[in-house]
């Protein structure tokens, strides 16, 4: 018996998401708020950095901090100052630059001078802290001009542009990293090439390599350094900023319903102070119980031998909301895996918290330092993931150091402790520990396969009694 086709009930037209006109409970608003506070935390973090840079009128040094108007960058001329507190887990192996992108204002030209044999990489990330650029020595990038454009830009590419990179959002960040060894000769030699690292709006592009003498930038006093990283995400302001943030970073495939749910709750709370307050309280709770614990390296990542941790998708987080937020909280702005491999450590070999009350060694066997095509380092940070001044001004050891002493068997032992070793060989390999709890951090720039696939992992931090 032939029957006419029956249309399923769900075939009727349905709204694309929640109906913002429907009354919702405070508990539901709090539930949605708690969830979005967690996964959008890195986006709001970077967005507020853009707002801070939007107030800057010139490229300058404000104490240890780099300042520049949007779509421009400022370069350091040496390692980062130990008092820097804007970005956790800084690195004292490279000379940094920093600038914020506003691609809705203008496409941006990034200059790459001729670095010769020197290691270099430009990190460029979107609002999600995902990288959208491959630009560095490991990528075989040539000197020239590179154009960064927003998701909707359809303009004409001028002659002389080597390559165009398109972001998924209008907001982003650019952070060149240029290797420098720890000698006076190299600190002098690097200065010439630094002058050619520039970023500027497309309207200023004329096909000629521009230069700036960074030593002549204005210098103004900075405020006293705090103990922790600058707070870029505040629960009290989060939901006021969120609509602009979500508009800047449209949903990834599969995120449409998530965005619609959040926007509906924001609309409902717009004229309902009780809903808004419930959301703020939920955000405070999420900050305390979900986000803040991820500052500790031991609470996320891939488990490795001897309590080390690593991640495999740095700056390519996609929908891995947990790792994106964990990295943004503990050490935001990591390079792509093929550019840098990171290894994190809070604990000694026995699983006890690293603390300056004890002495430790980290011993790399012969030919057992991190396998790299670029360079490697072992850095040390205090409990807030920053440097603390020490008598020899040393905050990392590795390729940059020319005076490290190998043992007779070819191994390299780093001595991690507060007081200087009395033995001259141990003193040469001394990594001064800050007071209290601290963390260790291995970077492998331009890693070889063994560092990326888990064949190589760092040795233990062994307590010496």
Question: What can you tell me about this protein's structure?
Answer:
The protein has 465 residues and is α+β, with helices and mostly antiparallel strands. The chain folds into 3 domains: 17-47 and 232-295, no CATH class; 59-217, Domain of unknown function DUF1254 (Immunoglobulin-like); 297-464, Jelly Rolls (Sandwich), CATH 2.60.120.600. Helix content is 23%, strand content 23%. The protein has a 4-stranded antiparallel β-sheet with strand order 3-4-9-6, with helices on one face. A 4-stranded mixed β-sheet has the order 8-7-5-10, with no helix packed on it. Helix 4 (235-248) packs across helix 6 (273-291).
Keyword list:
four-stranded antiparallel β-sheet, Jelly Rolls, four-stranded mixed β-sheet, 465 residues, alpha+beta, 21 strands
CATH class of the largest domain: Mainly Beta
Helix content estimate = 10-25%
Based on secondary structure, the structural category is alpha+beta
Strand line-up of the largest beta sheet = 3-4-9-6
Give the name of the CATH architecture of the largest domain. Sandwich
How many helices? 9
Euclidean distance between termini CA atoms: 88 Å
Global outline: globular
Q: What is the fourth-level CATH superfamily of the largest domain?
A: Domain of unknown function DUF1214, C-terminal domain
Number of domains: 3
CA-atom Rg in angstroms: 24 Å
What is the residue-averaged pLDDT? 95
Instruction: Give me the CATH fold name of the largest domain.
Output: Jelly Rolls
Number of strands: 21
Q: Which sheet architecture does the biggest sheet show? A: 4 strands, antiparallel
